[in-house]
Specification:
Two copies of one chain form a homodimer. Chain A contains twelve helices and 17 strands. With about 375 residues, chain A is α/β, with parallel strands linked by helices.
Chain lengths: ~375, ~375
């Protein structure tokens, strides 16, 4: 089957680019002597997870219980659920642990830590540290850190953080500085736990930008980047990759053109692309995605989707090239934010440097 | 089962509010002597469609072939596919038509009109008119209108438009003016087709704001509103409804609180809520949604989700009420834009004015 035979809109994943991205991150993390525990929140695919863990220790990170259950079914036995759970979800985590899966939870709350400690489920837990993102986590120097760690009792195994604020950087130097904040926060927290006589075997960090540009990861035991597998326009913009490293695109069909107005309309809109506007705050605003030709090139010049309706994407294009476009022409859209674009789709059509579809990989959605 | 027993995040649909919204729109449209052909792009649910077509002629509108196929399977026999197709999708439309479903397509392109005319499928087609939205459609006074209509041959049955620019209104007077532009555009186009000796039985318009506030619909034969079934914060903001008319909410669990910072963290983020920011351009920016208590009230004061990460929603709340919130507390989120929020979910948990879950209704996603 060829790309042109696929129903649109759909996700196209280039295996060669994916494997190159996987190698690059594996090398970056191993250079610092740290284990890679890839975050599957972007890919949500067992086939991708198998490639991402080849040559690694096999542990993975997930963002939802639905992902944890899916990957457990597909044979993954060491799963870190990096998003804090409410107490009522512990029974689903327990069901996995009782099947022999090593399930590690995170918390930044003392009452939840007590609930985890009191729960019969055989899971482990990390205290979540705020390394500057101000989203979740406790400060590494707070009294709460020790209280939460103690409340976890013998389920405590370490600390973790996510330096989401690396996304506000626009230079690799800035990212490297955030990576150092990220490292210091968990290393400091780990030292405090150990001084207090508490267990801290796991010192976990992770974001694609910081793991790409960290100067050193001394004291860290594992890294949890995720979007590096696919990359996207935002990651290219903040220096995590080049645009040619974007492995996942949305295949779409042209459903209208207005040559005089320099506009193209495609059958991928706000659902198929998401309404994420990550690149809006960067130097090169890519709207709701950048349109390429079916071969993933720029035969059409520069086309940016500047309006996204539920099922229509409307792009401002170079009028000189629009005249070559017919209704029905297939295009590929490089996404702003791969994690959210992928979320509306249930499968990947796999190519490997050509327009031949060599495989179809499923993905898990929902919660 | 009670709301508090549901897995979070999930969609909660209040049947009583839904039925009130359905009645109100049915009355509004019938007042003008026009048929209601509800657009199912928001609900994507056979159970909702059955309620929405009760007492109507039974015809529905959809936005994707996946919806058309789903509703045909559920017994709907008169389906308008209101989004233009590329030629390669005509075979799926034909498959439905060959099962005896009345399938009506839309086009604003002469070459596509010729492709529809030449296709063996027994479907009908409408010429899409631009009534001011500048998204799709040809102008009612353009030469293209007659060319496209003629190209459709004996598949031509009429004209349609969607006044999406009603969404830029902030007063009901403005909406009523747009409704008149919408009406005039198709009535003008219909008159031109008839003068040219062409068929124009169908004169179709539709958007929730314009169908709510139109002063008259003389010459129009059918109306295609969609989001009125569920309503949302944006529709409330532009005067299509009151906030109490919002029938669909997202049930979520609190996974973190920061009483001093006046913040609450829930397990519904950018996927469960969408990154739609429709209300940003209105007087009351509701961020990524407005948090209510599990009874759909305001026991927590005013809480707006101002940051949406993949699986975390972070809300700015009244610190005085945050102290009553525990990890695990359930909340409900009123969405900015119901169509996009619903898109990440595969079912509705139905309530009817209480916290008891009385039914579960499926929905169709994908393409």
């Amino acid at each position: 089957m060829q790309l042109k035979d696929l129903p649109t809109p759909c996700l196209v994943l280039d295996k060669g680019i994916l494997e190159r991205n996987l190698r690059r991150m594996s090398d970056a993390v191993h250079r610092h002597g740290v284990a890679l525990r890839p975050h599957l929140k972007t890919a949500k695919s067992a086939a991708v997870a198998r490639l991402a863990t080849t040559g690694e220790k096999g542990g993975i990170t997930v963002s939802t219980l639905a992902e944890a259950e899916y990957f457990a079914e597909h044979g993954f036995r060491d799963i870190l659920l990096a998003n804090a759970l409410p107490p009522q979800k512990l029974s689903r985590a327990e069901a996995l642990a009782s099947q022999g899966v090593t399930v590690t939870l995170v918390t930044d709350n003392e009452s939840m830590a007590s609930a985890i400690a009191a729960h019969p489920g055989r899971f482990s837990a990390l205290v979540e540290i705020d390394s500057g993102d101000r989203r979740t986590g406790v400060s590494a120097d707070s009294d709460d850190l020790i209280k939460i760690a103690k409340a976890l009792g013998d389920k405590l195994v370490g600390v973790m953080t996510h330096a989401g604020h690396s996304y506000s950087c626009r230079t690799t130097d800035c990212v490297a500085d955030v990576a150092e904040d990220e490292r210091l926060s968990v290393v400091t927290a780990a030292a405090r736990l150990r001084e207090a006589g508490l267990t801290c075997d796991v010192v976990s960090v992770g974001s694609t930008p910081t793991m790409t540009h960290a100067r050193n990861l001394d004291g860290v035991t594992e890294a949890r980047p995720g979007v590096y597998m696919f990359q996207d326009l935002f990651q290219a913009e903040i220096g995590s990759c080049e645009k040619r490293d974007i492995a996942m695109t949305v295949l779409a069909s042209v459903i209208g053109t207005n040559v005089d107005g320099g506009r193209m309309l495609i059958d991928a809109g706000a659902i198929a692309l998401s309404k994420d506007r990550s690149t809006q705050a960067t130097e090169h605003d890519a709207g709701y995605g950048e349109i390429r030709d079916i071969d993933n090139g720029y035969a059409f010049g520069k086309c940016i989707i500047d309006r996204a309706y539920q099922e229509h994407g409307a792009a401002a294009c170079d009028a000189a090239v629009l005249k070559d476009i017919q209704i029905g022409t297939r295009v590929r859209v490089a996404p702003n934010h791969a994690c959210l674009t992928a979320a509306a789709h249930d499968r990947y059509y796999i190519v490997d440097g050509s327009s031949e579809v060599v495989d179809v990989w499923d993905r898990v959605n929902g919660w």
